[in-house]
Design brief:
Largest sheet: 2 strands, antiparallel
Strand content: 25-35%
Oligomer: single chain
Order of helices and strands: EEH
Number of helices: 1
Helix content: 40-55%
Number of domains: 1
Distance between the termini: 50 Å
Structural class: alpha+beta
Number of strands: 2
Length: about 50
Amino acid sequence: MLTPRFYRGRLVGFVQREDHGAALRVLGQLDRALERMEARSPLRPPTRES
């Protein structure tokens, strides 16, 4: 199944639906990597503990 691809409100083409799943997996991997980097960062702000 083809899905429309938009850029700045304009139709620029179509992609296969399976490509979205791969993109979401990569975004998930990047989110997890960022969380690990932020957890180790000495520059992160202190957290409030109630």
